[in-house]
């Protein structure tokens, strides 16, 4: 299991679910707030935002099974269907009463599945550059899906070079060396390398296809935030998603790519605080 990422929170608690260890932590005071990360990321991306909001909310951070500090056993599925079930079970374990949820990338589909398919209630939902509508996935995804075993056996330096290049493509402004190091750290060792290609191999649009007809049924306050320069999931999806949700609000963040947390931290932090305080005050 990977150690905690440099500069990130210590996920000092474990929830055992179907043989998996899900690493998590919680801190702060106030209404519950849960952050959901995406792929190939971890809770490290959300850590600064969680710390900033912990003066007003009790924040929960977790790494999906197969990611970050959570277990990466090769026999365990890590597809979006599994992750949605895992999140629903984790919410039950935490015994939260309708938390606010902020989700990025895959975390969007995971949180939507837990809400729409598994009946977990939310106080609000903020969807940040999320996987929710087809099509998604890149040519690289397709190539890896067809040859996951081969990619899993790449020499470590070749794997690391490909991984760093892939991660760098998610940022608009460019990553600092310490950011790149933190993002790739969970995938560097032998278990991490295999897990990295396994999660791509199990990506399947059917898990979002199941959600698309249900998006209009969401009644909790929902907000969409997107980086205008996102090349992984282009910004036109923001308006498409908002329309599918019944016309919810949208904020486009300039000079930000898919890694909006790193590209535009001040703008994103301001937007999240504005949104969360507004919906909490309206409860």
TrEMBL record:
As given in the record, the signal peptide range reads: none
- Gene3D superfamilies the record matches: alpha/beta hydrolase
> Which Pfam family is an annotated match for this chain, by its short name?
Abhydrolase_1
Domain spans labelled AB hydrolase-1 = 31-265
Under PANTHER family, the record lists: MONOACYLGLYCEROL LIPASE
Name the chain's protein: Pimeloyl-ACP methyl ester carboxylesterase
């Amino acid at each position: 299991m990977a150690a905690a990422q440099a500069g990130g929170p210590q996920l000092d608690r474990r929830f055992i679910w179907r043989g998996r260890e899900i690493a998590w932590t919680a801190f702060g005071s106030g209404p519950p707030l849960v952050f959901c990360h995406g792929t190939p990321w971890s809770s490290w991306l959300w850590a600064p935002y969680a710390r900033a909001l912990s003066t007003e909310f009790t924040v929960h951070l977790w790494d999906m099974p197969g990611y970050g500090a959570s277990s990466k056993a090769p026999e365990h599925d890590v597809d979006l269907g599994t992750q949605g079930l895992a999140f629903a079970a984790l919410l039950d374990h935490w015994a939260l009463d309708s938390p606010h949820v902020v989700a990025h990338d895959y975390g969007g589909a995971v949180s939507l599945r837990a809400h729409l398919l598994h009946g977990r209630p939310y106080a609000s939902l903020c969807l940040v550059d999320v996987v929710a509508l087809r099509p998604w996935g890149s040519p690289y995804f397709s190539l890896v899906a067809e040859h996951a075993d081969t990619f899993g056996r790449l020499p470590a330096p070749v794997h690391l070079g490909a991984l760093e290049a892939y991660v760098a493509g998610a940022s608009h402004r460019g990553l600092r060396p310490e950011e790149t190091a933190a993002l790739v750290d969970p995938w560097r060792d032998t278990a991490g390398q295999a897990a990295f290609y396994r999660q791509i191999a199990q990506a399947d649009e059917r898990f979002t296809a199941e959600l698309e007809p249900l998006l209009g049924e969401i009644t909790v306050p929902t907000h969409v935030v997107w980086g205008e320069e996102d090349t992984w999931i282009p910004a036109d999806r923001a308006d498409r998603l908002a329309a599918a949700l019944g016309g919810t609000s949208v904020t486009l963040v300039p000079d930000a790519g898919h890694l909006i947390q790193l590209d535009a931290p001040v703008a994103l932090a301001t937007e999240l605080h504005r949104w969360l305080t507004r919906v909490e005050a309206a409860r």
